[in-house]
Amino acid sequence: MNQLIIDLEITTDVTGPLATIAEFLAADQKPTAVFIDSDEDIESIKEFVATLSVIALNFPAFLDGRSYSSANLLRRVYGYKAELRAVGDIRIDQLEQMVRCGFNAFQLADGQNVEQGLERLKGFSFSYQPAFNREPLFRARAS
Hints:
Layout: E1 3-6, E2 9-12, E3 19-20, H1 21-26, E4 33-36, E5 54-59, H2 66-77, E6 83-88, H3 95-101, E7 105-106, H4 114-122, H5 137-142
Parallel strand pairs: 3-4, 4-5, 5-6, 6-7
Antiparallel strand pairs: 1-2, 1-7
């Protein structure tokens, strides 16, 4: 089983298999966990996001950032509140930006140290630009 970082804690993945969008849409009884590749349209599941406990967005390559936009849409536009997991070629250096886009769970790529990833995430408490879940530093100082 894979180790994950979820809400700033290291845990073991017990989710089980994730349905693809095609499997999800075809199912009469909808699964509660779905895998979305970076080239798939998240609009096709927007009416179901409140019923999902896990949405895993794939980053097939370090240079493919389309899932950042999908994460932002899921959180800001569709109001998704549950686990938003980054999977695929996930590097420690990407984690802070992923949090800023709305991810709260991470399955790191092979060769990446999950403990180091957690420490990196805990190292950032402020940012200078607005993010999904934080006020920028200048607003925090003003209050």
